[in-house]
């Protein structure tokens, strides 16, 4: 069972109604959600061991094809660690967390939820030392506890919680749930 699926019992209350699952690859955790993913050819290149300098995401992840205030939730598991937390001069078109969170906030209804699962850097290194193969697509350093909260708060979200996953000694992620407050 994937780490994302193990935590559905904690996230299910926030994933009701109409929402999107960003970066699900071929393994949607929320089958009823609209899947937002790279086109297949770019996804294959992005997950290749022969990763090019970078694979530019299509505009839809930064400019979702939805009106403002229409979604009940945005779910993203093991995606945002592939992007920079701050703008990078050598990758000006790469999505950044602040831009991503602001776009997700735009499409969420007031009281809509943003649910994120992301690897935590120290725990991820520990699992690699224990023999888990590293994810070749993760070019950026994985976050530490508090990174999601800081940037989500700056983007205008109210963070309900950010915690380490701990159902199993091999767990290595951070789970964060935030809400778009009523203005």
Describe the structure.
Strands 2-1-3-4-6-5 form a 6-stranded mixed beta sheet. The protein has 183 residues and is α/β, with parallel strands linked by helices. It has helices at residues 3-6, 8-11, 40-46, 97-107, 121-129, 147-154, and strands at 19-22, 34-36, 71-77, 108-119, 158-164, 173-179. The protein is globular and about 45 Å long. The chain has one domain: 3-Layer(aba) Sandwich (Rossmann fold). Helices cover 23% and strands 22% of the residues.
Strand percentage lies at: 15-25%
Distance between the termini: 39 Å
Subunit arrangement of the protein: single chain
Strand segment count: 6
Mean pLDDT: 78
Q: Radius of gyration in whole Å, from Cα?
A: 16 Å
Q: Biggest sheet: strands side by side, in what order?
A: 2-1-3-4-6-5
**Assigned CATH superfamily:** Vaccinia Virus protein VP39
Residue stretches low in confidence (pLDDT < 50, at least 5 long) are 42-56
Number of domains: 1
Please summarize the sheet with the most strands.
6 strands, mixed
Structural class: alpha/beta
């Amino acid at each position: 069972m994937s780490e994302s699926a193990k935590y559905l019992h904690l996230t299910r209350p926030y994933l009701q109604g109409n929402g999107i699952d960003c970066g699900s690859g071929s393994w949607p955790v929320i089958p009823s959600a609209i899947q937002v993913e790279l086109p297949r050819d770019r996804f294959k290149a992005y997950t290749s061991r022969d990763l090019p300098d970078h694979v530019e995401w299509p505009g839809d992840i930064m400019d979702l094809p939805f009106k403002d205030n229409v979604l009940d939730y945005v779910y993203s598991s093991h995606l945002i660690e592939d992007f920079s937390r701050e703008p990078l001069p050598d990758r000006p078109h790469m999505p950044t967390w602040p831009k991503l969170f602001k776009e997700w906030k735009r499409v969420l209804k007031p009281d809509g939820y943003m649910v994120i699962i992301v690897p935590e850097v120290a725990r991820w290194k520990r699992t690699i030392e224990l023999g888990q193969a590293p994810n070749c697509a993760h070019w950026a350093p994985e976050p530490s506890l508090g990174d999601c909260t800081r940037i989500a708060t700056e983007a205008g979200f109210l963070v309900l919680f950010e915690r380490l996953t701990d159902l199993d000694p091999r767990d290595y992620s951070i789970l964060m749930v935030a809400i778009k407050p009523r203005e």
